[in-house]
């Protein structure tokens, strides 16, 4: 609800409060308490639970066998080196972050010999995690997408999707946020047909947010065949793809495969945005290492878009923090480190596949009704079980196992 | 056809063009007085010794993990950072009515404050509340508030170019005529770019008007400790306003006083009238943070928290800060003395009266151009210089250049 202020008095109680003889002016008295984050409440309930064998499956991080986040020995070693390097300069980085980081992050997604890179129509910006990347992308779209027309959406998100996404676009001033059907509860997979139907109805120049791989929160992705159909649709309807790539390499254990849909669009000459995170693949959650990739159609627009991106960054956080990006750049710039890191990622994936197979096998042995093949068809950190709200509640209350209300869980 | 095809080039930020031009200048005597960071007498950036020490502690600590920080940031950082601004014995802290949000540097703290105010201050989603920034001010103030949705960002009188000092009458006049509930961005100390701060008595007058006219106090504190060399002295204005009963925001940056420019360590301190208000405000801040950067970066905050919460390290840090401040004060005194000896026309007392990193020399645009073109001394068109760009090796050259410029160019 909007309220305007009149110049003489604001809205709200003007009642003053006296503390120690000093009059305190009331300013925040009308600020309502925000509804608690469902994830926060779930975690709080879990912490209060005194059951010894309780299990929390709603987290957002990769955990090792001991249930801890960890960094590989390689990353640990590099962090030590960086921490004791006397030559490193404490100066402000550029607004775009560390150039060696953005260059490698760009190459990781698109492939080094991608035409767009060679033709100099790619912009890379280091961001504060993938949230920062999505926010920056949203601000760029809001301010500069189709200057001559008045673009104000819509933006399409998958149903379900990460619960902070809609809020990010709204915060950037894009109110028209819609959903396309994605997860089919009955089929326990992606309902491609319904997805395409919904997108056929979308107006031209809609922005479509797509998960390149390891969809959050379902873990279910499109096949390459379906990606080809989807991109044909997007070209025909002049849609703008905004990819989410939160865990490249952690879905199939193959970096190219995990970025395949982005490379497909780039090879078709499309413009696109891609929000990347290095949290999962490096175990560097707290360091907030993210990247926004922007592929343009023409190199002539690059400088202008770059200057506007800089303007947006300055008003958001000014510059990113360099610590984590430096670690990632060090790994990606060194061939031996790069290989060692990729091997580490692959073994995380193998462990994930093992867990999925074991879970499916146990359910089969228990004679659990229904099909559980979808567990091994999905990839990445997340898994959508297909359990409904009542079943999830049962698990929480009777068995002390905590899942997201939508039936999705963190495999680790 | 590119959908970004009509995006216009944004105007470049002046200070960076200056840095570029400086880099390309072949003159060996060139001096960059447009830098925005501290430099040693050798003209080098300085990693504070205490920072090096704490970095080693962090690297050696195997118990530290790399998990996401809470949305509002590292708790021990937030509380110790607020204590730095408000003082350990602050009545507001004792009365449990202080909250904080860890942010991406000072900019991030301003951004979070601005986003909150736009949503929840003076009505809901009221974008018409005027936001006043000093004339002149750090140019990013305008962008941060405008981008948060405020439609009416205006200047308040501050710098008197003729007097080369504070335009108190103008400042108080704008406070008197501002619509009630307007937001005022105040520089806690070491005003950027003028280096001119109100005296204690002048701050008291400002506070009196702001209280009477119900104006919102939003402090920007980027140089605490760096200005006078003493943390408490530099926080006088912020603490005075707290004693006057204001509910207010204070955006803190640890970039300069910790030399942690690239780790983006900032804190938004919130003073409210009671714990319940703090709780509600923080709950809304969480929502805002979640759609901006989700949770803040851990490294810098950890470093600052360890330093502030460990007695010997805290003492060492205060000492390091004093080292930086003292060097700046020395350069101010030297420059003023040299100009006096040279008999440079005009008065130059403002150089030692101003405080902090920056000084408004009073040189006009023509004189600035002359300095750049003829003497390869780079400063902002406004006449602003960064004292940190001065060293014992270049100060004679700079003083002589100012002298020559003032004499030959009007």
TrEMBL record, chain A:
Gene3D superfamilies: Aspartate Aminotransferase, domain 1, Type I PLP-dependent aspartate aminotransferase-like (Major domain). One of its GO terms (molecular function) is pyridoxal phosphate binding. Keywords: Aminotransferase, Pyridoxal phosphate, Transferase. Residues 61-407 form the Aminotransferase class I/classII large domain. It comes from Hucho hucho (huchen). This is aspartate transaminase. Belongs to the class-I pyridoxal-phosphate-dependent aminotransferase family. The keyword Transferase applies. The keyword Transferase applies. It comes from the Eukaryota. Its EC number is 2.6.1.1.
TrEMBL record, chain B:
It comes from Hucho hucho (huchen). One of its GO terms (biological process) is aspartate biosynthetic process. It comes from the Eukaryota. GO terms for molecular function: 2-aminobutanoate transaminase activity; L-aspartate:2-oxoglutarate aminotransferase activity; L-cysteine transaminase activity; pyridoxal phosphate binding. GO terms for cellular component: cytosol. CDD domains: AAT_like (cd00609). Its EC number is 2.6.1.1. InterPro entries: Aminotransferase_I/II_large, Asp_trans, NHTrfase_class1_PyrdxlP-BS, PyrdxlP-dep_Trfase, PyrdxlP-dep_Trfase_major, PyrdxlP-dep_Trfase_small. In eukaryotes there are cytoplasmic, mitochondrial and chloroplastic isozymes. This is Aspartate aminotransferase. The keyword Cytoplasm applies. Residues 29-402 form the Aminotransferase class I/classII large domain. Keywords: Amino-acid biosynthesis, Aminotransferase, Cytoplasm, Pyridoxal phosphate, Transferase. Signal peptide: none annotated. Gene3D superfamilies: Aspartate Aminotransferase, domain 1, Type I PLP-dependent aspartate aminotransferase-like (Major domain). Belongs to the class-I pyridoxal-phosphate-dependent aminotransferase family. Its main location: cytoplasm. It is found in: Cytoplasm. Its cofactor is pyridoxal 5'-phosphate. Homodimer. It catalyses: L-cysteine + 2-oxoglutarate = 2-oxo-3-sulfanylpropanoate + L-glutamate; 3-sulfino-L-alanine + 2-oxoglutarate = 3-sulfinopyruvate + L-glutamate; L-aspartate + 2-oxoglutarate = oxaloacetate + L-glutamate; (2S)-2-aminobutanoate + 2-oxoglutarate = 2-oxobutanoate + L-glutamate.
């Amino acid at each position: 609800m909007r309220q305007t202020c009149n110049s003489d008095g604001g809205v709200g109680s003007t009642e003053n409060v006296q503390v120690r003889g000093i009059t305190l002016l009331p300013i925040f008295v009308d600020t309502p308490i925000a509804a608690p984050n469902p994830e926060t409440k779930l975690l709080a309930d879990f912490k209060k639970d005194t059951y010894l064998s309780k299990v929390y499956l709603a987290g957002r991080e990769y955990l090792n066998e001991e249930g801890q986040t960890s960094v590989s020995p390689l990353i640990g070693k590099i962090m030590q080196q960086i921490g004791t390097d006397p030559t490193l300069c404490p100066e402000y980085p550029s607004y775009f972050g560390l150039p060696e980081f953005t260059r490698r992050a760009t190459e990781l997604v698109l492939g080094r010999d991608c035409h767009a890179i060679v033709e100099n129509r790619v912009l890379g910006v280091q961001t504060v995690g993938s949230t920062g990347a999505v926010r920056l992308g949203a601000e760029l779209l809001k301010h500069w997408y189709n200057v001559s027309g008045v673009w104000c959406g819509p933006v399409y998100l998958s149903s379900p999707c990460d619960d902070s996404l809609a809020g990010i676009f709204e915060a950037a001033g894009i109110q028209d946020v819609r959903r396309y059907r994605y997860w089919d509860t009955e089929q326990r997979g992606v309902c491609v047909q319904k997805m395409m139907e919904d997108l056929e109805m979308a107006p031209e120049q809609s922005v479509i947010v797509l998960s390149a791989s390891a969809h959050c929160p379902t873990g279910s992705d499109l096949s390459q065949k379906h990606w080809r159909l989807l991109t044909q649709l997007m070209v025909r309807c002049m849609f703008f793809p905004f990819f989410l790539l939160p865990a490249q390499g952690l879905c199939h254990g193959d970096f190219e495969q995990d970025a395949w849909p982005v490379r497909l669009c780039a090879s078709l000459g499309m413009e696109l945005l891609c929000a990347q995170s290095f949290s999962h693949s490096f175990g560097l959650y707290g360091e907030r290492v993210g990247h926004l990739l922007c592929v343009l159609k023409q190199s002539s627009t690059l400088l202008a878009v770059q200057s506007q991106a800089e303007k947006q960054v300055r008003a958001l956080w000014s510059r990113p923090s360099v610590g984590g990006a430096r670690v990632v750049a060090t790994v990606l710039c060194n061939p031996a480190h790069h290989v060692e890191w990729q091997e580490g990622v692959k073994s995380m994936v193998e462990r994930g596949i093992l867990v999925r197979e074991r879970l499916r096998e146990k359910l089969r042995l228990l004679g659990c009704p229904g099909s559980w093949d979808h567990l091994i068809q999905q990839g990445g950190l997340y898994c959508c079980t297909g359990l409904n709200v009542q079943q999830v509640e049962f698990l929480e209350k009777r068995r002390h196992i905590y899942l997201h209300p939508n039936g999705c869980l963190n495999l680790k | 056809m590119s959908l970004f095809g009509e995006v216009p080039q944004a105007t470049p930020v002046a200070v960076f063009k200056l840095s570029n031009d400086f880099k390309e200048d072949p003159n060996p005597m060139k001096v960059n007085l447009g830098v925005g960071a501290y430099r040693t007498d050798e003209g080098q950036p300085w990693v504070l010794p205490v920072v090096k020490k704490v970095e080693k502690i962090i690297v050696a600590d195997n118990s530290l993990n790399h998990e996401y920080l809470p949305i509002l940031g590292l708790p021990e950082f937030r509380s110790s950072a607020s204590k730095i601004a408000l003082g350990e014995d602050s009545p507001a802290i004792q009365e449990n009515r202080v909250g904080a949000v860890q942010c991406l540097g000072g900019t991030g703290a301003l951004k979070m404050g601005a986003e909150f105010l736009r949503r929840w201050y003076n009505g809901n989603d009221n974008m018409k509340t005027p936001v006043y920034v000093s004339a002149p001010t750090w140019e990013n103030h305008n962008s941060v508030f405008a981008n948060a949705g405020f439609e009416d960002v205006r200047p308040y009188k501050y710098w008197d170019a003729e007097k080369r000092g504070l335009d108190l009458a103008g400042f108080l006049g704008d406070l008197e005529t501002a619509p009630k509930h307007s937001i005022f961005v105040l520089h806690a100390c070491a005003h950027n770019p003028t280096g001119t701060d109100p005296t204690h008595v002048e701050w008291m007058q400002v506070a009196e008007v702001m209280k009477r006219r119900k104006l919102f106090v939003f402090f920007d504190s980027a140089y605490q400790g760096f200005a006078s060399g003493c943390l408490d002295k530099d926080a006088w204005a912020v603490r005075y306003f707290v004693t006057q009963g204001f509910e207010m925001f204070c955006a803190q940056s640890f970039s300069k006083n910790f030399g942690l420019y690239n780790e983006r360590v900032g804190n938004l301190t919130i003073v409210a009238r009671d714990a319940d208000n703090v709780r509600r405000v923080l709950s809304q801040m969480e929502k805002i943070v979640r759609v901006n950067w989700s949770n803040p970066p851990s490294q810098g905050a950890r470093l600052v928290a360890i330093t502030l919460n460990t007695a010997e390290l805290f003492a060492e840090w205060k000492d390091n800060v004093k080292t930086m401040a003292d060097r700046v004060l020395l350069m101010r005194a030297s420059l003023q003395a040299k100009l006096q000896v040279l008999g440079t026309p005009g008065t130059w007392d403002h150089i030692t009266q101003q405080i902090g990193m920056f000084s408004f020399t009073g040189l006009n645009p023509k004189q600035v151009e002359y300095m750049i073109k003829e003497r390869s001394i780079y400063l902002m068109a406004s006449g602003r210089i960064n004292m940190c760009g001065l060293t014992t090796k270049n100060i004679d050259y700079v003083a002589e250049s100012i002298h020559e410029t003032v004499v030959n160019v009007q």
